[in-house]
Specification:
With about 120 residues, this protein is an alpha/beta fold. It has a single domain, classed as Rhodanese-like domain (Oxidized Rhodanese, domain 1, 3-Layer(aba) Sandwich). It is about 50% helix and about 15% strand. It is globular, with a radius of gyration of 18 Å.
Length: about 120
């Protein structure tokens, strides 16, 4: 009986360890580092703001996948999980939530610290 309980506990810990490994790490970078990285690497740059916000201005070469859209999870599946995904929103709140969801889906995520507001402030 003791061996069965020990075996069950070991199996449970192994399962949790494997599950934890499936979630990729997220990196939060400042606007200067973010700009350098998107310029020097082949990345997927995603603006997770609404279409209206996206049309009002975005980072060059960014694609728009609205985090608030009901199809967000489906839409991110079109991205390549083997390439890092660089994301941003207006101030960082939505991109943090989007990053979590994307990590759980198996993406390596780099998030712009402070969002598009910080990006624009750095440019001025």
């Amino acid at each position: 009986m003791k061996n069965i309980i020990l075996t069950a506990i070991l199996v449970m810990f192994s399962f949790f360890k494997v599950s934890a490994q499936e979630v990729k790490a997220k990196e939060l970078v400042n606007p200067i580092a973010f700009e350098q990285q998107i310029a020097s690497k082949k990345v997927q740059l995603i603006d997770v703001r609404t279409a209206k916000e996206y049309k009002e201005g975005t980072i060059l070469n960014a694609s728009n996948i609205d985090f608030l859209d009901d199809n967000f999870s489906k839409n991110i599946e079109q991205l390549n999980k083997k390439q890092p995904v660089y994301i941003f929103c207006q101030s960082g709140k939505r991109s943090a939530a989007a990053a979590k969801k994307m990590q759980e889906a198996g993406f390596e995520v780099v998030e712009l610290d402070g969002g598009y507001k910080a990006w624009k402030a750095e440019k001025n």
